[in-house]
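Recap from last week: sequence in, structure out.
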Amino acid sequence: MAQAKIQAKMNEAFNAKFSRTLSMADRSGQLLESLDQLEMRVEALREAASALELERESIMEVIQAIQTGQEMRNICPGEREELELTADRLMGRTLAVEVSVSTVRNPQQEEALNKATSIIDEVVQKLLDNMESGRQRLLALHAACLTEAPAVPIDQRFQAVVIGCALDDQKKIKRRLETLLRNVGNAEKNIKLMDHQKLEKANGCQ
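Predicted structure tokens:
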């Protein structure tokens, strides 16, 4: 009889332990499911913030193009002043929107990003001296960021540097180069338009 009671107690203890183990497993599974859902929400948040970053950059680029475009110069001073004030106000409101998505980098990726940034900055500084040469250099840097075969020569040294960057940084580097190329293209158009207008005035005076 005593032996039976002892065995019954042992069975109860075993069943209780087994039940607790299952309960802990269930709780662990629920927590894991919650974390999986949170991970998806975090990624969606980062994507939304990145999209806002792109939209902010796009708006600023359009405002700058309007401010420096030839169309603005062709307007009479009174109307131009009003348009410039509006553009300045919009730029100020855009700058007041701060969106930032930080990228986690290891030391090697940090070093690669600094090198890539330095190379681009060096090209930008030389643009004023020789815009056409600078544009060709930017095209070579941009080609190094493309996955498909580009139609222009690739800067292989820059490509090796970009490959060492974090994926998010690679996208931002490519985007910066595309913005610079658009700005250079707009500047060249404005210069040609101004030169054409000078020729027309000179011919009209003859």
